Amino acid sequence: MNAMKKLIVSLKERSYPIFVGASIENTGALLAKENVTRGVLVVTNPTVKRHYFSKLSAGLTRAGYTVALCVLPEGEQYKRLAGIEKIYHAAVKAKLDRRSPIIALGGGVVGDMAGFAAATYLRGVPFVQVPTTLLAMVDASVGGKTGVDLKEGKNLVGAFYQPKAVLIDPSTLSTLPPRQLRNGMAEVIKYGIVKDRQFFRYLQSIAAQKRMPSRGEFETIIYRCCAIKAAVVRKDEREEKGVREILNFGHTFGHALETATGYRKYCHGEAVAIGMMLAAKLSGQMNLFHDTAAVEEMLRTFGLPVSGGKGIPGKKLVSIMLKDKKVRHGRLRIVLPLSLGRVTVKEVPENGVLAALAEEK
Ligand SMILES: NC(=O)c1ccc[n+]([C@@H]2O[C@H](COP(=O)([O-])OP(=O)(O)OC[C@H]3O[C@@H](n4cnc5c(N)ncnc54)[C@H](O)[C@@H]3O)[C@@H](O)[C@H]2O)c1
Ligand SMILES: [Zn+2]
Hints:
Structural class: alpha/beta
Radius of gyration: 20 Å
Strand content: 15-25%
Largest sheet: 7 strands, mixed
Number of strands: 11
Bound molecules: nicotinamide-adenine-dinucleotide, zinc ion
Shape: globular
């Protein structure tokens, strides 16, 4: 096993460490360095609880913490305000005070919800991320976006709220279903296309062997992705300066697809994979990008879908896209690749998107 590596997300007084290669049992010991009180609330879901709660809880207890538990129902369709209220009640019951941490143990759904509850309970309590899906390790657990979906659209309610620490134990990937591993690979590939050509080449070298990354390679991948995300977040914490926006590559369309299909048909990463392909094609049609084939090949090799949205009218998808948080003055802003490792953000007219969608079907 690789040694634990530490990265810092530098945000002045909100700076925090990401421990890549930490062990879940050590959470208590790592938490001891933070200025938090002894009562902690762990938020998780039934599957993750079954696999990892006793490990986490044993470590916390050993380090002197009193552990309370809140189990949320599993799945994106439950990333709703009702779940947040459930966390608040558990927090009251556990008698959390303003320095008692809420620990998210799980994937992005648990992390986004626990984070939003931590941001708002008593106007903010410390928050710690223990991500257990690849997607949450490389993306959702870092950067402080928290929140829930409304029936009208994804992530429409939330807060920027940075964790105090992110503890990544890659051994938890051993129980993750293959579909969820592929799901996380979509965000991994995204980082390559958006920011790091060399990393994209590294992924290609694994893809060439027609296999998923090994345990050691996953640690390298997670570290690289977290480093990229940390650098982007440092420059543009609240997505106001047009820097963080690039991480939404594939997401405007991906989110619309998730919304249109009731958050049931596609995992987040699958929808993003389809969205990245669409953006690549759109960029190709505008003669800005010439590596669509390499993107498609990479997505396919890691078992991700490259088209979708059949049977959903293009106009419906576009109208959902127009409700996206990133829309300005009613125009669609889309992240378009320019080359492998470089993207730009452009306002694309509705009919351009409709044409690209029509080609999909
Ligand atoms: N906050 C952010 O910056 C950010 C970034 C990307 C995605 N997200 C959000 O994250 C969510 C998607 O996260 P996700 O892909 O992790 O999905 P998820 O949280 O739904 O987890 C996927 C499935 O894996 C199971 N699981 C989790 N860890 C496991 C393990 N170690 N072993 C076995 N099963 C395990 C879960 O129970 C669940 O069924 C979306 O809601 C998305 O909007 C947020
Ligand atoms: Zn995403």
